[in-house]
Amino acid sequence: MNIQNRLNEIDDRLGALPKGTLTFKNIKGKSQPYVQHNIEGKSVSYYIKVDEREQILLEFDEKSALLEEKKHLQKYMESLATILKNNPYLDRQAGIGWQSFGDIIDNQMLYVDKTGFIKEWWESSPQVSLITRPRRFGKTLLMSTVQHFFDPRYKGYEKRFEQLSIWKEDKYRKLYATIPTIMISFASVKSRTFDGAMKAIKEEIRLAYDNYALLENSEILDENIKELFAIRRKKLYMEGENVDENSIRFLLECLYKHYKVKPIILLDEYDTPIIEAYTSGYYEEMMEFYRRFFNITFKNNEFMFRSIITGVNKISKNSLYSDMNNVYVYSMLSEGYGESFGFTEEEVRDILKCQDIDLMQKVKENYDGFIIGNTKDIYNPWSICNFVYTGKFDSYWVNTSSNKLIGELIKNYPNRNKQDIEALICGEEIEKAVDEDLSIEYVVGDEATFWSLMVAVGYVKAIRIEDENSNLTAVKKYRLSATNLETLRMLEKEASYIFGNDPDYNVEFAEALVNDEIEKVNDIIEEILLYSTSFFDTANTGGGKKIAENFYHGLVLGLICVLKDRYHITSNRESGRGRYDICMVPFSKDEKAIIIEFKVRDSDKENSLEDTVKSAFEQIEKRGYDAEILSRGFNKKQIEKIAFAFDGKESLVKKS
User: Fold this and answer.
1) pLDDT tens digit string along 474-529?
2) Residue 179 — pLDDT band, cuts 50, 70, 90?
């Protein structure tokens, strides 16, 4: 609804309704209706005749309702004016896919004022700031904003900033368009080969040179420098020419000598080529290039003023920043720039208000949850902008692109611990050590690194567990949980392939389990264990019966997580005199609660899987696993016990 149009409609209708106010006078003991209004400063009233009374009373009722609506809308407009005074572009159309600050402002699109970042960064001390945030989190747009603010090429475009927070202080107005700024993005450097990646990087460097083609005609640079610049620029157009790691340093030298000011470097999505190299098999070649390029560009570069590097992952100093002591890292787990990337809850609330969308609670349920350091309730900008544009709740962020590395890591996550991922899908928290100092070449099989990546890409959120030794080690403990409904769907999608299952098995299995179709449950389990290409061969675990049980536990937990909207599903919790495997408590008392126990056949004590099932039921009873369910108001008749017995790829499921 366009509020101003509605106010105009109300005024038009009020003009057609009776003037004045409705009053009642006591005449001969009866209350009689009159219309009272002012004529030339005098109060005049007239009696409403009986045959007109019904129509006029209805019109006054309508008038009263319209005046109340008008009062509400005017108050709403006043609150919008306050919001728009501080964030003037929130009532504009959301632009999807636009990443240039200039284009967004010039085309009057929705823009959340993040120029406060410029002040925060300017007043910080690191020469090189590495800022890691999940994809589609506004990194490229914010780097573009920084470039448009400082770069002399944008002198004359001050109006783009005049309504934004950075323009309020004279100190920063004086900085506008005074520092040459190079922005390079490696977001599109995605190739299956090293040569292809180098070609894409060379193209990005060429664009940086083209942006400063004016240097070829500089009246300040000497002829030798101008000639070298022209030669280097020409080579960037030539096929077969290798990437010169010194290219950016030389460009900065030219800019410094032309403008007499040391330039700023902005490198966006620096880690995309590294991740692509790792997943495509040319990691060492790429890292060799990166070490030389980073050392020359960001360390041994007397022509650089300061720089900002953005990406999703923090690559270990041991493998990339071995001798770079001028880099300060702002990750998802550390303090700094907590509100600069992503939208805060207040910003989302203001956006929805300015867009006349009254669905804040549902938006929060779907898209809230990111945590940066200690800053909570951060929203992914891509999802919010898409929701505002379409008006529909969907998994926008999840559907933007695949993450090959995370997909592979989830599939290769240790089978003995796969219930960790399933627990997240079921809405539970898990406690894990997280190592921020990522060495990507050692990532497979390293749990702390795996969870660091899961936090970095935004699939899970992390809350630090403080203890007396928490600041003494690089690996720290966190409480982890799925970030929000959007990321939960992504985890479900990835986890459905953990065991090589057809995702349809999940629904079929879960429905059979709660509907007492135990034979069908047996059939599905047998089929999964028999034909799953990623089945965990218990004979090769080296970990014995307990690890095998953990595998089967994770398998079943993954299958039943589709029921999380009907059941509160918990696993490995204390109840009675022990810890049950899985407990399913229905949200409706009309459905049965379920306790599940897993047992791997002990060949020394059990002759068959029937004996193993019997042992499982005895353990449920002996240890009182139903205590938690009974405490929730269920009686014993409402509790069903189910035993899963396994022996390699053989299984037997029974209910009590």
Assistant:
1) 678 899 998 988 888 777 766 655 544 555 667 888 889 999 899 998 988 887 77
2) very high
Q: Are strands 181-185 and 264-268 parallel, antiparallel or unpaired?
A: parallel
Q: Is 133 exposed, middle or buried (0-12, 13-18, 19+ CB in 10 A)?
A: buried
Is the CB of residue 309 less than 8 Å from the CB of residue 348? no
Say which residues have a Cβ less than 8 Å from residue 16's Cβ, sequence separation at least 6.
Answer: none
Residue 113, CB-side half-sphere exposure with 13 Å CA sphere: 22
Residue with tokens 């536990």: 553
Task: Tell me the percentage of the chain whose pLDDT exceeds 90.
Answer: 48
Closest by Cα among 19, 23, 96, 97 to 59: 19
- Determine how many CB atoms are found less than 10 A away from the CB of residue 457: 21
Q: How many CB atoms lie within 10 A of CB 528?
A: 21
- By DSSP bridging, strand 128-132 and strand 327-330 are parallel
- Nearest 5 degrees, angle CA 492-CA 495-CA 499? 145
> What φ, ψ does residue 305 adopt, rounded to 5°?
-80, -65
506: Cβ contacts below 8 Å, ≥ 6 apart: 496, 558, 559, 560, 561, 562
Per DSSP, 87 falls in state S
Residues 6+ apart with CB under 8 A from 223: none
- Cα distance from N-terminal residue to C-terminal residue, the chain: 58
Length of the chain as a residue count: 656
Alpha-helical runs (H) found in 496-650? 504-514, 518-531, 544-560, 609-622, 627-631
The confidence score (pLDDT) of residue 44 equals 78
Asked whether residue 600 carries a pLDDT value surpassing 70, the answer given is: yes
- Which residue in 576, 572, 595, 597 sits closest to 584, CA to CA? 595
Contact residues for 32 (Cβ-Cβ < 8 A; gap 6+): 24, 25, 26, 47, 48
Q: How far apart are CA 356 and CA 253, in angstroms?
A: 51
Sign of the alpha-carbon torsion through 362, 363, 366, 369: negative
Q: Which residues contact residue 144 at a Cβ distance below 8 angstroms, ignoring those fewer than 6 apart? A: 99, 100, 101, 102, 183
How far is 310 from 327, CA to CA, in rounded Å?
Answer: 12
**Rounded Cα–Cα distance for residues 234 and 92 (Å):** 42
- Edge-first strand listing for the sheet containing 30-39: 21-27, 30-39, 42-47
**Number of neighbouring beta carbons within 10 Å of residue 294:** 22
pLDDT at 372 over 70: yes
Six token digits for residue 9: 């409609």
- Which carries the bigger pLDDT value, residue 335 or residue 47? 335
pLDDT at 541 over 50: no
Tokens of 398: 């999840």
